[in-house]
Specification:
The protein is an all-alpha fold. About 70% of the residues lie in helices and about 0% in strands. It has two helices and no strands. About 0% of the residues are buried.
Length: about 55
Amino acid sequence: MGALVWLLIPLVAAIGGGLWGSWANRTRKVRGDGPELDGYARFRAAMEKSDTGAGGA
């Protein structure tokens, strides 16, 4: 009987892990890449505009 209890522990853990994984990977409202791409475009524009004159060799 004791061996059966020790076998049930990993089984319960696997079931719990599967439930948690399915909950964590649930479908969420898709936001898209819009905000990230907008921020990158602003960064590129700022880098192209800045002329600090601090050149290399």
